[in-house]
Amino acid sequence: MASPGTALFAPGLARVVPFAALPAAVLLGAAVVLLPVPVLLCVVVLALAAVVWWRPVVAAYGLIGVTPLVAGIDRGGLIPVLRPSEVLLLLFGGTLALRAVVRWRGAVRLPRPNRVEVAILLLAVTSSILPLAWMGLIQREISRDDILHALVLWKYLFVYAIVRYGVGTEAQVRRCLWLSLAAAGVVGLIGVLEALGIFGVQGMLVRFYDLFGASDRELRANQASSTLSLPGATADLMILNLAVARGLWVRTSAARQRMLLAAAFLVFVFGALAAGEFSSTIGLFVGIVAVAFVSGAPGLTLLAIPGSLLAYPILRPVIERRLSGFQSASGVPASWVGRLNNLRTYFWPELFSRWNFVLGVRPSARVPVSSQITGYVWIESGYTWLLWGGGIPLLCSFLWFANVVARAGWRAARDLTSARGAAATGAFAGIAVIVVLMAFDPHLTYRGSADAFFGLLALAGLGGAARDDQGGA
């Protein structure tokens, strides 16, 4: 990262800038008169790019602080083709890439990846290049949906790279973690209000965050999908930040900070429970157990009991609605029956025929079904998704990734002196929750929560030496 006083441009380019500024200003003045809104947006984008160019750590701050608040806005909701979170990612990543090219002095120094980075890269390759190459080899049609889903783990590798590149100092890591807590706190509060159906929060979310409108929202009544538009992702985000809050708690003695962390801890517990899913409750329990053991405080798990008792009277509508599912004729919630039927009808027959499970069926994790409100049926089993999307290579890549992250996270979280240790606490709890909840859904790639998880991996610096410079200059 450029420190104050460091030249923003290479010497040759810096001499050209003053001569280009005057005609650019004239053109900008004319454009403002003719096209005020597009010009204003361009100015905002250029201003953001300029700030990121000057201080690359701002890209990490932006991704961590803004993504949870906009990740649920679907493609076409506000911006054609892309989600707002993807626009931010491209803007920040493109700016940093261009900055690196402009400031290149001719020397090539390839970074040496650590084991976590190799594992992420392997996940990306086995979920995209390998299955697409196989589809091409056997002449299976490759759809636009396949291409989009093949890019998902590359996107998270991109998130990891931007945070890893931009954040270098202990203070910056700590600032990123507090930004993460603040953003997740807003998401959690919105989710609780949404689940309780008060203050018109549901109407706001339907208007800005639900691509399929009120009919889709009705399917998730009394559930906190919040600004991520997905209850499971909201719960995952709460659990990740709950772990981070605990990590920061043991690394500070400041009373004011501890009060804020305790309040945040409650919001995250309530937010996870307000998601109204059994899998989210299981994930919350797994996350608390993981945090308790990695921080050497097994008694922390006992807090789940008073926490649940405190949450029950407030979240009673949410809990009672979910428990009512067991009053069906079969004694099993209809959502569980539907999930199993979808797997048996749309995915398992094709997956386990003609040895498709070896190299996968296709990257797209959904099949078009016209009778569905959304027009698709998604794979509601994370491990089925791994086999469907990339076969045994992708499944093995995930298991190795989980092993590497868990071992490195455990070691790093034992450091009780640095903010990176707090990030590692979140990463360790996150991978424990993901491994368990992948039995239900593809939690590894949930929008918003996956961004936060890969960002935490970068902040924790797992498997690599902590940098003490000013970042990615």
Structure notes:
- It is built from 21 helices and two strands.
- The protein has helices at 11-34, 36-54, 57-70, 84-102, 115-126, 129-137, 144-150, 152-166, 170-196, 201-209, 213-219, 231-249, 255-274, 278-294, 304-314, 316-323, 334-351, 356-359, 382-413, 419-437, 449-460, and strands at 366-368, 376-378.
- It has a two-stranded antiparallel ribbon.
- α3 (57-70) crosses α8 (152-166).
- The radius of gyration is 23 Å and the shape is globular.
Mean residue pLDDT: 85
Structural class comes to mainly alpha
Q: Quick one: how many beta strands?
A: 2
Q: What's the Cα radius of gyration?
A: 23 Å
- Unreliable spans: 1-5, 465-473
First-last Cα distance: 4 Å
What order do the SSEs take from the amino end to the carboxyl end, as H and E?
Answer: HHHHHHHHHHHHHHHHHHEEHHH
The helix tally amounts to 21
Percent of residues in beta strands: under 5%
Gross geometry: globular
> Portion of residues in helices?
55-70%
- Largest sheet descriptor: 2 strands, antiparallel
Instruction: Give, in spatial order, the strands making up the sheet with the most strands.
Output: 1-2
Which characteristics define this entry?
single chain, 473 residues, mainly alpha, two-stranded antiparallel sheet, 2 strands, globular, disordered N terminus, disordered C terminus
